[in-house]
Design brief:
The complex is a heterodimer of chains A (191) and B (154). Chain A is α+β, with helices and mostly antiparallel strands and 191 residues long. Chain A has one domain (4-50, 96-186): Thiol Ester Dehydrase, Chain A (Roll), CATH 3.10.129. Chain A contains seven helices and six strands; from the N terminus they run H-H-H-E-H-H-H-H-E-E-E-E-E. In chain A, strands 1, 2, 3, 4, 5 and 6 form a six-stranded antiparallel β-sheet that branches. With 154 residues, chain B is α+β, with helices and mostly antiparallel strands. Chain B has a domain at 11-28 and 61-147: Thiol Ester Dehydrase, Chain A (Roll). Helix content of chain B is 21%, strand content 37%. Chain B contains three helices and five strands. Chain B has a five-stranded antiparallel β-sheet. Chain B is elongated. The chains are: A alpha+beta (191), B alpha+beta (154). Chains A and B meet through helix 1, helix 4 and strand 2 of A and helix 1, helix 2, helix 3 and strand 2 of B.
Chain lengths: 191, 154
């Protein structure tokens, strides 16, 4: 009989290249991982400014008719201009898949932490919003590893909960949001 | 452009324990792929059924930013476009794969003023179902603090 776990691992491996835009999943021990708590990533500057198409595609997907994102005259009166939906904040800081020139890309620290776990899923996100993000804003952000739990069992398998705090600023240096994200790094065997 | 009549709710209008009415969102293949394109999160589990299945999940599923945006939409449709989302925490309990319908409902748990801001704490529950709407499963919880304007003194 074919080993189901091995088969699953092979499939995950096949997609390694597709995951690389986020970073490469590092395998190691929990003891190694613990040393990463408190570590800060580099500040990464998002290349493109916030633009209206991103906002509209997102609202289109959700069928969100809030005029803060659609109606310039309403948005100007209420917020001082068209704003970015708060739910798009995390998306605006995702690394690009491809660029003509290879620059240093931000690393998703939850993947870089060496752990005996070959895949992951996002489980909890807490975001604080300090001020609106406007069309034309250039954002930058920095991550900090807050916590790595011991091995836990969930319905997906055994793994570790990793908490990372992302502080997002606009080009004026003002903090616009702080995202505290919990990722579950897990392995596919042993249900 | 077609004129839409938005409902504007003010802080004084809201009572603790008030219900935020249910909103549905069908999670078709198209919407899952739209969500990948719109959020630019190309993690393979969101577009490749075999990757999702290798993770132990039946099909491609929604990413975090869809839950966030859906919760925000439900809240701002209820409170009006002048609602400011101050803080939002979501806990995802189960993945929502293509082929399900997502629902969201909630209530006001606390009404208060802090630093001259008129705040409301809301709690929302997201559920999914397949063919039978009576067979729902809780997939996500959200705790959100919003600020609503006060009515202008007349």
């Amino acid at each position: 009989m074919l080993d189901v776990t091995e088969e699953k691992k092979k499939i995950l491996k096949k997609y390694e290249e597709d995951v690389k835009f986020l970073g490469s999943i590092k395998v190691g021990t929990y003891e190694e991982a613990k040393k990463w708590v408190g570590k800060k990533g580099e500040t990464y500057f998002v290349e493109e400014p916030v633009d209206i198409s991103r906002i509209r595609f997102y609202c289109e997907m959700l069928e969100d008719d809030n005029p803060s994102y659609w109606d310039e005259s309403y948005a100007k009166k209420q917020w001082g201009g068209l704003i970015c939906p708060p739910g798009l904040m995390l998306s605006l800081t995702l690394p690009p898949i491809w660029r003509p020139k290879e620059k240093s890309k931000p690393k998703f620290l939850a993947l870089e932490i060496p752990l005996p776990a070959e895949t992951f899923i996002n489980v909890e996100t807490e975001t604080e919003f300090f001020q609106p993000v406007y069309i034309g804003d250039y954002l930058n952000y920095q991550d900090e590893i807050i916590e790595i739990t011991e091995e836990k069992k969930t319905h997906l398998g055994l793994g570790y909960f990793i908490t990372i705090l992302r502080t997002i600023r606009n080009h004026k240096g003002e903090i616009v949001a702080k995202i505290k994200n919990v990722t579950f790094r897990f392995r596919v065997e042993e249900k | 452009m077609r004129k839409i009549n938005y409902r504007f709710r003010y802080w004084e209008d809201v009572k603790e324990n008030e219900i935020i009415p249910e909103v549905k969102l069908p999670i078709t293949y198209r919407r899952v792929i739209q969500s990948v394109a719109a959020t630019r999160d190309f993690f393979p589990a969101f577009f490749s059924p075999e990757y999702a299945q290798a993770q132990g999940i039946e099909n491609i599923y929604l990413n975090t930013m869809v839950f966030e945006g859906f919760v925000d939409k439900v809240i701002t449709s209820w409170g009006g476009p002048h609602t400011w989302i101050r803080k939002r925490k979501i806990r995802m309990l189960r993945p929502v794969p293509a082929g399900s319908t997502l629902t969201c409902t909630g209530k006001v748990v606390k009404k208060y003023v802090i630093n001259e801001e008129f705040c409301l704490d809301l709690e929302l529950i997201l559920q999914k179902f397949k063919e039978d709407p009576s067979k729902t499963e809780k997939v996500c919880m959200a705790w959100v603090t919003i600020i609503l304007p006060k009515k202008k003194p007349t």
